[in-house]
Amino acid sequence: MIRLIKRPTPSRFWTAATPVLAVLLTMIAGGLMFAALGKDPVAAIRTIFYDPLFDPNFASYSRPQLLVKAGPLILIAVGLSLGFRAGIWNIGAEGQYIIGALCGAAVGLAFYPAEGWYIFPLMVMAGALGGWAWAMIPAILKTRFNTNEILVSLLLVYVAQQLLAAMALGRMRNPQGGGFPGSRNLSQYPAASNPELIAGTGMHWGVVAAFIAVIAGYILLQRHMLGFQIRLSGQAPRAARFAGVNPARLVVFCLGVSGALAGLAGLFEVTGPAGQITIDFNSGYGFTAIIVAFLGRLHPVGILLAGLLMALTYIGGELAQFMLGIPSAAIQAFQGMLLFFLLAVDLLSNYRIQLGRPEVA
Amino acid sequence: MLLTIEGLTKAYPGVVANDHVSFSIGNGEVHALLGENGAGKSTLVKMIYGLVRPDSGRMTLRGVPYEPANPNAARSAGVAMVFQHFSLFEALNVAENVALGMDHPPPQRQLARRIREVSETYGLPLDPSRLVGDLSAGERQRVEIIRCLLQDPKLLIMDEPTSVLTPQEVDILFQTLRRLAADGTSILYISHKLEEIRSLCDSATILRLGKVVGRCTPREVSAREMAEMMVGTTLQVPTRAATEPGEVLLEVSNLTLRPASPFGTVLRDVSFSVRAGEVLGIGGVAGNGQDELLSALSGEARDLDGAVRLRGRPIGKLGPTERRGLAVLSAPEERLGHAAAPDMSLTENVLLTAARREGLQSHGFLNWGKSRGFAEKVIRAFDVRTPGADVAARALSGGNLQKFVIGREVLQRPEVLVVNQPTWGVDAAAAAAIRQALLDLAQGGAAVVVISQDLDELMEIADRFAALNEGRLSPPRPTRGLTMEQIGLMLGGAHDMDVAHV
Amino acid sequence: MDIFGSINLWVLLASLMVAATPILLAAIGELVVEKAGVLNLGVEGMMITGAICGFAVAVESGSPALGFLGAAVGGAVLSLIFGVLTQVLLANQVATGLALTLFGLGFSALIGQGYIGVRPPAMPRLDIPVLAELPGLGRVLFRHDVIVYLSIALVAGVWAMLRYSRIGLILRAVGENHDAAHALGYKVVRIRILAIMFGGACAGLGGAYLSLIRVPQWTEGMTAGAGWIALAIVVFASWRPWRALLGAYLFGGIAVLQLNLQAAGVRIPVEYLSMSPYLITILVLVIMSSGRSRAALNAPASLGKSFHAQG
């Protein structure tokens, strides 16, 4: 019989080791899943985790993609992690991402075909504001009416998707696009594009923003009163009120920051890698970022690493699809499994496992 | 003999909760289990009730080996238990709560009738259809007792039953228990209140640090002798020099406040004032508005009518941080999760209340070095037993954490300090140290409000006494010369009669 | 005017019940789970898993009934993962629920690879003799497939169970105060895991109703937020079974109405009509949660909290 004994103080070793353990367990379980699909599990794992970085044929293409994919994931996940730490569950980042992209693109398209250094910064601001405003809906409903922010933020994702479709097919459709859905290509409109900053690295403004977010998040959580209040509210809400934390203000702050960062991610994506507003330019980064946030243990530096790892599974997954015919859905299931294992082994940091005879039969 | 216990032992990591405990209870006997907090009483009764399984030792019930695997087995063997923290469900009604404690409950309507019958027989009036969340602490205890009595138990275990009762309610309970004992039911009575045990129990077993350290017949020994067996040392009684109270620091006039939680208590028309150098004791049975009063004074709950004043200036609109800036500090009852964050280190926990007064932050940025320094100062000054300031709050024992919480406030030099249940669940030595610190603070010119359910504590340290009853506060009266009977009347809400006397 | 004239009220009511059934099934299951004090946000994932399991079993066996059984088993097995993680390994319920949804979406898409474009075997309609011939009402109430009736029976059963049975009382007690329930000797973890599996089975049935009857075919991500709406309906219902029925039928009404408006060619872009059910759900949530003191009384007090027996 196995018993759980709560540790007096969380284990530092396991706090760092659990994500690694979860990744290893996921590789094993994922290997079994690939074997069940009739694929060679070792080759599949190798194609996903090793080849994109080191295979001579693919690495030159794949390596820059790592930053391209990790940028938005990290940017969104850092924002989400603040709220998750405070017990404020914004799971609608996908919606905020879409709205940020729509608002930013709208500004850019409004200026078309003017040139000017100020256009892109304006679009960035519009993107952040759009994501922020979309996140303010659950924030204000929560603080004013005590409405569950989980459900509202999530339901708003579906609304945002319909809005995206309406825009891509309607108001934002490229008038010179020959009737095809989708906006003008922003990445080919120099004043509004988010180009690769250093050739061959995949570095674009979104990646820069992600790094800044990691540093700012670190300072906020470790060094600032607001970050302390965020952690306190998540761990002991009543103690937080006693310490003078205003819960409503915290809800507005956390949802606002995560919304703005998700909006930024959307804007950088639509002006760079995606290039234009299309009905499905969003690729689920808002949801995957939830996994990234947890995998990074809600810690900015952890999120940086987790974002890179998750980006690797995306790129490796595409490669595995191309090379081995592993369906992309398998990669999605694989990512979900990673979160399961992470949650399962997480208990090691707070509990000791004792083998012994049962307490109560 | 009804129940015989031999050599019962139970160890947890790092602590032996029970070490070869033996005693026996006869039929119809009221047996006291006496000991300080942490002496191992709770673990022992959990083993008898089947919630915890002993590591070694034997129990014999009515001549046959007794090894309950779970509470159901204990109940069917005729053992029933009334818990200290009630095992009740607030959103369910009385009859449903009773049914949950029975193995084969009759249909609801029939059960309701039997509840009425039993409650009348034993003088414990109770309406089966009321929601438990709406009942007072005393009524809730009746639910537990009736739940037990309906099963016709041979042994009734009562864990600290009087801590939530007024003196009058205690009398009613004791009459019920005596009648039960006369009918042949044995009672295992757990308490650390000596006078109660002397008036109720036939025999007593005294536990200290998990071991049996003495047995006696309570009627034949003095309370002092029992206390010394229980504590093991001679206790330091808090001392204070008589001082003249100074100006009025904190004044509350006609405070009326709705609670934040659905089953909370409404504060109605609460008025009192505290002077510099004075200790005001506020007594009352649990759940009569203590938490709500503390929130109103700490700033967690705001009053917008200016009912709370500091030196005549209204502070009701200010939040906890602003009030701390004015040297109005507080320490709530619940240590883990309210006064302190369980998973945070002590260094982090001082930031909860001391960030501003101790300069632990500048422009919002935290100074971890200073925080640690202040935490270590609290640890030293209040003799908090901990390996260091980096340890999580939940790793400390109740008494040590309480010393830390009180110390954190006292060392910030408050002008007004409000504490709720400062020594609840704390061992006697730590309790004495905390009381002494509160007295010293008052001596230094602070106004101290002590909210407590421990009347002995209030009589010991308070200059004036007031009682909370259903959210109303009686007019404060000087402690000196108050009789138990008068206190009982105040606790029971009979304020008007008092006013007539004064 | 002629837009509404083209919509037959009786047909609308009948199709409303069909549209509401998947959400009703998922909601009544989640209601039981939440009454036991567990918040499982993975309803969407369990529904989509049920949708594909039911679809695959029905196609392979040729029997829709077996398909529904397979869906219930599939949903329950997936929910068991949630149960073990949250009840035994004490994982955070919100995070685990999300993981369940993310995994379920990927897993169902994986299984569903070979089933895109396949037609499932048809479920026979269960016309109730005589009653089905009634004008108007007969068509609305008595000409449905058996699952519609089952969902209503399930609501009645859950209602009676919670209100009158000992199991229901214990379930409510566990959700209200798990420490007290444990002290009285009830197996908190076991009861909760069973409730979670019941919820999973119900969500699975709801998903299969989508893929086998309402649509009927398999497409990736076909639940399109139905699981989240089911969660919202539990809040709307303040944890009362009959109100969950009302909520689901109201929602079904909105869904059917907007589809009819689309078909009737109203001059509102399709996308705006399609987002209306989500917006109305949010609106209803706001209205329900603002009168909070009443609803709070009915919400299980231990909802979402982990239970770890001491000692």
Please give a structural write-up.
The complex is a heterotrimer of chains A (361), B (502) and C (311). Chain A has one domain: ABC transporter involved in vitamin B12 uptake, BtuC, CATH 1.10.3470. Chain A is 70% helix and 3% strand. Chain A is built from 15 helices and 2 strands. Chain A has helices at residues 12-36, 41-49, 51-54, 59-85, 93-111, 119-145, 149-169, 205-223, 225-235, 237-242, 247-271, 285-295, 300-324, 328-345, 347-350; strands at 2-6, 351-355. Chain B folds into 2 domains: 3-231, Rossmann fold (3-Layer(aba) Sandwich); 248-501, P-loop containing nucleotide triphosphate hydrolases (Rossmann fold, 3-Layer(aba) Sandwich). Chain B is built from 17 helices and 23 strands. In chain B, strands 13, 16, 19, 20, 21, 22 and 23 form a 7-stranded mixed sheet that branches. The radius of gyration of chain C is 20 Å and the shape is globular. Chain C contains 14 helices and 2 strands. Chain C has helices at 2-5, 9-35, 43-61, 64-88, 93-111, 137-141, 146-164, 166-176, 178-183, 188-214, 226-236, 241-264, 270-290, 292-298, and strands at residues 125-127, 143-145. Chain C has a single domain, classed as ABC transporter involved in vitamin B12 uptake, BtuC, CATH 1.10.3470. With 311 residues, chain C is mainly α. Classes of the chains: A mainly alpha (361), B alpha/beta (502), C mainly alpha (311).
